[in-house]
Design brief:
Rossmann fold, 10 strands, single chain, 8-stranded mixed β-sheet, alpha/beta, 19% strand
Length: 300
């Protein structure tokens, strides 16, 4: 199976590494360094090449950087299995700082949206536009319905023990992994599924294939910011925010309910029909048009 080829004979991105908390992390750079920076952040169990189609269409207007979060893609796994949202925020902060990307526009999907919104709430002066795709996290649960700290700690320890004995799933061939990719998202075209599989899997020594992400990304942190504290961070965001959701996703209900209106100073909402969780894949043309219009004309 071949990989996606850049249109018009243009070169693809270059691969780079940087360090955060002693981890060697990876990102893709699409060139055009004199243009305004645009940072792309993928979701859980995904990778930077998730954005290749979007980057191809926006690379002439922006200096695009797509990061592999720790434990994902070609970034190093955390030796201590630390994969809390705050850990990812730290890594993004390091990338923006080290590569001098601020002020930066950010487009982020799912887990990446949770990371990006916390980063923008912590460093509002560094973010000029923020697009969150299916990435505001689970619905707010009343405090009395949440597990108590001791129960949460027990669950976290038990999850860690379970993951310690869990071996990465092995596929007999890249085609088998490709079929699994198609099952996970029926909206994907064969070309998209092949491309994501090729960049998202490694071949094992015995010839089988496994996904690149660390199984411990399933566990999450023992304790995290409370939902109320997360929303306080969101209130610090002073740049325009675009919230996107797929019409086939539960995020649709949350956006349409207006529950998020009170926590973002300047937010607009768009539901993209005939799309599930991976809106940027399922309705690429519509997604790029909306995001392109929102991000502006490319001027800093």
């Amino acid at each position: 199976m071949g990989t996606l080829q850049a249109t018009g004979g243009t070169a693809g991105p270059t691969s780079h590494t940087y360090f955060s908390q002693r981890l060697r992390l990876h990102y893709l750079d699409w060139g055009n360094p004199d243009a305004p920076p645009l940072l792309l952040i993928h979701g859980n169990r995904d990778h930077a090449h998730n954005w290749d189609w979007v980057a191809e269409r926006l690379r002439d207007r922006y200096h695009i950087v797509a990061v592999d979060l720790r434990g994902h893609g070609d970034s190093q796994w955390s030796a201590g299995a630390s994969y809390g949202v705050s850990d990812y925020v730290y890594d993004v902060a390091q990338l923006v700082h080290q590569q001098q990307l601020a002020p930066v526009r950010i487009v982020a999907h799912s887990l990446g949206g949770m990371v990006a919104s916390r980063y923008a709430g912590t460093f509002p002066e560094n973010v000029t536009r923020l697009v969150i795709v299916e990435g505001t996290g689970p619905p707010l649960v009343p405090p009395e319905q949440r597990p108590r700290p001791a129960e949460r700690m027990r669950r976290w320890i038990e999850a860690g023990r379970s993951l310690a004995g869990r071996q990465p799933r092995r596929y007999e061939s890249l085609d088998a992994a490709y079929r699994r990719m198609q099952e996970a998202n029926p909206h994907l075209s064969p070309e998209q599924a092949r491309h994501l599989t090729i960049h998202g899997a490694n071949q094992n020594e015995d010839g089988t294939y496994s996904w690149k992400f660390d199984n411990y990304v399933h566990a999450g942190p023992a304790l995290d910011l409370s939902p109320e504290d997360v929303r306080l961070l969101w209130r610090n965001i002073d740049c325009p925010v675009l919230l996107l959701a797929g019409g086939e996703s539960w995020h649709r209900d949350e956006i349409e309910s207006g529950a998020l209106d009170a926590v973002f100073a300047d937010a607009r909402h768009v539901i993209i029909e005939d799309a599930g969780h991976w809106v940027q894949h399922d309705q690429l043309d519509t997604f790029v048009e909306l995001v392109s219009d929102f991000l502006g004309d490319g001027e800093t």
